[in-house]
Design goal:
With 256 residues, the protein is of the alpha+beta class. The protein contains six helices and eleven strands. The protein is extended.
Length: 256
């Protein structure tokens, strides 16, 4: 993220914040995605030679009128306030932001000693109010909507998808009816299985891949995992699941 001159929210001016240097590139469908490198000379294209990085430029292609070159100096003059600052638009409860809109998080650090007090104050205020700051910020070739939220006294800038970037799942949900008893049992099962310690979980793909490699090295093959089959008697499955959840895998009573 580019370092800003300050962060503004209404009439309030806050010292600058800066984030990590990593940032996403242009997304598909973005007008900035039409920027492209200058094409190499005909002689180079004919010889299929790699173009050196220093000979590659950035530009905007005009329909039938060539390419307008854009240098880094040109982009520094881009008339976009959020290119050099994070604009805080307002504050909302954290639950007001639909999780489907979250894109990519960045750690945010104070930009110099003068920003440290404001940084600490903002993080503490957001923590106490249980709110997030809705912001706009330019990252590389895009202006992004973002949510600024605290985590362990550190501010996290979480970029958000624009409304037109979210697709609606038309026609994916089945219309099969469920009975009231099935629904009660399903809700009861959710209650019995409430609570998951995600810190104890890990990605098992690598372990499974190592087992596959070991088996092939030894000249054998692994049996494919059993594919679960849909059941016709959903009510019986739910009742058995509730009984199993109450007693836990070891046969003892499950405690939460």
């Amino acid at each position: 993220m580019d370092r800003g001159d300050h962060i503004r929210s209404g009439r309030t001016a806050l010292p600058p914040l800066c984030g990590n240097r990593g940032a996403p590139g242009p997304a598909q469908g973005d007008p900035q995605g039409r920027q492209r490198a200058h094409p190499p000379p005909e002689s180079v294209r004919d010889r299929r030679q790699e173009v050196p990085y220093e000979d590659v430029g950035r530009g905007h292609e005009l329909a039938g009128a060539g390419v307008v070159p854009l240098s880094e100096r040109d982009l520094e003059r881009l008339p976009l306030p959020t290119r050099h600052q994070v604009n805080v638009l307002g504050f909302v409860p954290a639950d007001d932001i639909n999780p489907i809109r979250f894109a990519k998080p960045y750690f945010v650090a104070p930009d110099g000693e003068t920003a440290q007090h404001a940084y600490t104050l903002l993080a503490a205020a957001l923590t106490r109010s249980e709110a997030v700051a809705v912001c706009k910020v330019a990252i590389r070739t895009r202006e992004r909507l973002a949510a600024l939220r605290p985590r362990h006294s550190t501010l996290i800038l979480h970029t958000l998808l624009w409304p037109d970037e979210i697709r609606e799942p038309h026609g994916l949900a089945p219309t099969t009816p469920v009975t009231e008893r099935e629904l009660r049992l399903a809700v009861q099962l959710i209650g019995e299985l409430a609570g998951v310690d995600t810190d104890e979980l890990h990605d098992q793909y690598r372990e499974a891949l190592e087992q596959l490699i070991d088996a092939k090295t030894a000249g054998g093959q692994l049996e494919p995992p059993r594919t679960p089959q849909p059941t016709e008697n959903l009510l019986a499955v739910l009742e058995e699941s509730v009984r199993s959840a109450r007693h836990g895998p070891g046969g003892g009573h499950r405690t939460s």
